[in-house]
Amino acid sequence: MSDGREDVLRRVLEAEAAKVEVRPDALAVIRARTARRGRWLPFGAIALTAATATAATLVVVALGGSPAPDRTAPDPGAVTAPATTPAPATSAPETSAPAVPPPSRSSASSGTSTASLAVYYVGDDGGKPRLYREFHRLPAGDGSPAAKVRAAVTEMLTQESADDPDYASAWPAGVRVEDVSIAGSAATVHLSAAPPDDLAGQQLVWTVAAVLGGDPRVRLVVGDRPAGTLRKAPALDTLASLWLIGPGHGATVARTFEVHAAGAVFEATARLTVRAGRTVVTEKTITLSAGAPARGEARITLTLAPGTYVLELYALSAADGSVQHLDDHTVTVR
């Protein structure tokens, strides 16, 4: 841009990234986890240069550390479910309806309440392992905060529980939640094993924070021994740059439905492409409520004929026009 704002922002972010120690196997780990699901980004894998790898590394928290929470962006946690807004009336014979969430992979017990809970997973954001969020309707015991945390963390630990096959858990199979207790702004989570790495720790603390709100302290207990305290790392360094919040992957929607997008991108500008097979049905520019480094949101209404579509949310590079930060969901319009 002629005012140089993009260059200034890039220099600031590169300066911060230069302070981070690169974990050399980060991309290999997330690529291995998602590759086994049989699907990768349709635009292909992106090679990492040394500078890109440095900028891509998550700022993570050692189990004993407590970095200051990010104060430059609105809190993406503390949200219990995607909001639904009635769509404007159209000439279509079918009226608007909110997205129908796919069935949860957890089975509800008789007599327990259910809740729509945010669960964080790991996905590839242009070669960077980042956290993505889904909402799952889960059995929540007595409906207390402790019961909701237990339900959300149990779902997070369950292998292949994500609706979107591009997402995975950073935790190994077999880790169990043994107990959860809440005291003020702190949660104590008893697990059968410690997080295998810092990324898994961040997946846990962001999932807990989505239930409790804010930046709670998450005290870990493994077996009968304390294993440290986690806090959220800054959103800009931890969360994916763009989320397609709704409709969720696999959802069935009415002909007129709402698309809910969120993220932190340059000049708050994202693109939405709707495809039916290889055919581009529509393309729209989306302006989020805030630009990077803050996280903004936007909602737009689409009307489509019945069928199966892929919704692609992404940003375009100001340097070369390439696609960046792609998040895509397949939905069925009835």
Q: How would you describe this protein?
A:
- InterPro entries: GerMN, Gmad2_Ig-like_dom.
- Keywords: Membrane, Transmembrane, Transmembrane helix.
- Residues 68-111 are annotated as: Disordered.
- Residues 149-231 form the GerMN domain.
- The chain has 334 residues and is α+β, with helices and mostly antiparallel strands.
- It contains 6 helices and 14 strands.
- It has helices at 5-17, 26-35, 50-56, 145-157, 198-212, 235-238, and strands at residues 114-124, 129-139, 177-183, 186-191, 217-222, 225-230, 242-246, 252-253, 256-263, 269-276, 279-287, 296-303, 307-316, 323-333.
- The strands form 4 sheets. It has a 5-stranded mixed beta sheet, with no helix packed on it. The protein has a 4-stranded mixed beta sheet with strand order 3-4-5-6. Strands 7-9-12 form a 3-stranded antiparallel beta sheet, with no helix packed on it.
- Helix 4 (145-157) runs antiparallel to helix 5 (198-212).
- The radius of gyration is 20 Å and the shape is globular.
**Order of helical and strand elements:** HHHEEHEEHEEHEEEEEEEE
Report the span from N to C terminus: 43 Å
In percent, how helical is the residue content? Answer: 10-25%
Strand percentage lies at 25-35%
| Radius of gyration computed on alpha carbons | 20 Å
- Number of domains in the coordinates? 1
User: Biggest β-sheet, characterized?
Assistant: 5 strands, mixed
Count the beta strands: 14
Structural class: alpha+beta
Biggest sheet strand order reads 8-14-13-10-11
The number of helical elements comes to 6
Shape: globular
List low-confidence stretches: 12-24, 26-31, 33-75, 77-110
Task: Estimate the mean pLDDT confidence.
Answer: 77
